[in-house]
What we know:
Helices cover 53% and strands 7% of the residues.
Amino acid sequence: MNPNFIITTPLSATSYLMEDITELTLDDLCRACVAQADIIIELVSEGVIDTTNAPPNQPPEHWRFTGLHLHRAKVALRLHRDLGVNFAGAALALELMDELQALKAKLRVSAM
């Protein structure tokens, strides 16, 4: 998945393009997802989003996230809110969606 996002904050009309190289702090991700930090930390612990770019044993305040993390967190939170899926189930659903997307891309390439 390589989604790009445009986020408009409610306090301003400024929009930001969120790409994979954009770094978001935990606070930034919380604001963008309208979620508390403990929820984002739970998403990390359940494997919905990772902190592979952070050195081991770093506190959550030092974690950095990308636009892809933002997308995955929002999907997981939506699955949780709308369908009652727990975060481990959301991680599995996201993994299956990633796999499906990769298979579709292979089919498109082989069809050419």
